[in-house]
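Researcher: Here's a chain I'd like modeled. Treat it as a single chain, no partners, no ligands.
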Amino acid sequence: MTIEITVTKRTEQGTGASRRLRRAGRVPGILYGNSAAQSIELDHNEIFHKLRQEAFHASILTLQVDGEPQQALLRDVQMHAWKPEVLHVDFQRVSGDQKIHMKVPLHFINADIAPGVKTAGGIVSHIMNEIDVLCVPSKLPEFIEVDLSTLQAGHSIHISDLKVAEGVEFAAAHKGGNPPVATIVLPRAAKASDADAEAAAPAADAKKK
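Model: Modeled as a single isolated chain. Structure tokens:
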């Protein structure tokens, strides 16, 4: 999926210049990495709607900088405290052979058929909603699926259980970790019922005897 956005080089600097840009419906920003940092400006409506797309936050973007395409990642966004207004954006240039560190969203599937939900009445708890990956830009996944179809109550799926393309590493695993991604927990009412059933069993056996 190719996502393009039009960018213009910005020459005026400072708080006053940024305010003037915003009043004109423009957003100040910066493009850095691999060469000199470049101050830029973007159309507010275009970047505002792009930011609502999940893929825009976890994809290699093509910035058309005064007509010259440059590959980059979205690195930071500053929003107004209470208005739906983008105040500033940061982009980082990327090169094809250099590994990048990026957060990728997790998409959870098959929760409705997981034994821990369907049979035991458990509830899926998402411990993570995104995960840090290391890879070259061409390998960056738009999202990673987490298949819950075999998950039992009280059990968890860890990052080692996730399937990704060759060349994609998890930052946590790279450091030797294997944290959980999702688990199925039983509601308190279900736990209380199980405890009551266990307590009642010995009494029933004694009564029979």
